[in-house]
Amino acid sequence: MNPSVLSLFLSVLVLPAVFKYDNVMASLKVGVIAHMINTPNAVRWALNQGANGIEIDLMFEGTRPSVFYHRFPCDCNCLLQFLTNRHNRCGALGEGCSASTNVTEMAGFLGSSEVVSSRLALIYIDAKLDKSVRNYAEAGANVVRLFNEPVFARGALQEATRSNYTDRYFYTIENEGDHAYKVLDDSLQLPTNNIVYSTGITACLPIVFTVLSETVSRKKNAAVGIWTVDQEYSMRSYLDIGVDFILTNRPKRAVKLIGSDKIPLPGSAFKDCGTEGSFHL
What we know:
GP-PDE domain-containing protein; PLC-like_Pdiesterase_TIM-brl; two-stranded antiparallel ribbon; single chain; disordered N terminus; phosphoric diester hydrolase activity; signal
């Protein structure tokens, strides 16, 4: 992933208080975000699996959001997924890397009564901005406009501050590997307290990122999360560290490990980092 890309959470995130269950240390509430959920059927599947969040991949035509689509290659292609295909979206729905939905249809669906009345508490928008996009600020503002009216009302950062839903937008600069510490410091310079720190790599390469432990202990972010984690031992490792959310192709496995009663429902929006808080959308 491009470490310079600013992605959005439309959210409900949690604070890191700690408790213990089944030998797993975890935040008091831990979000489970289903990975590559780019169609309405995939949203339904994720919610039925117990996830309270979805990650969607937003492609652009110039600065205009055009389609939710991941493109090839993706986690559906790796050996670990082939061995357990029936348990993830790729196998369960027969949706591979090419699954897609145009932005108008998807935004309308996410604002429908079916979704609004569901357990969905967090939408993670992976904005696929590359060097061909000349104006990142305009593209980001267009993302906020896309969701403001159809989802919440029935330069991403600048546009969101003019929105009635400012407290529901959180920001993360995605990163991996050697970029992790620099991105952590850069993200804390953004002119907002609604910062989420997330790092990771494809589920095809289950690696533990020790930078997360330091990030959790610093408590300067609204939330800290990891992507993309499908193996139970990796999930346990990150729960021990104290992450606030796990992004996974196997949401049912994460829900079973965490406990469905420990996964936040829409409640009160995150306010201040480092203070007691709760959730709502």
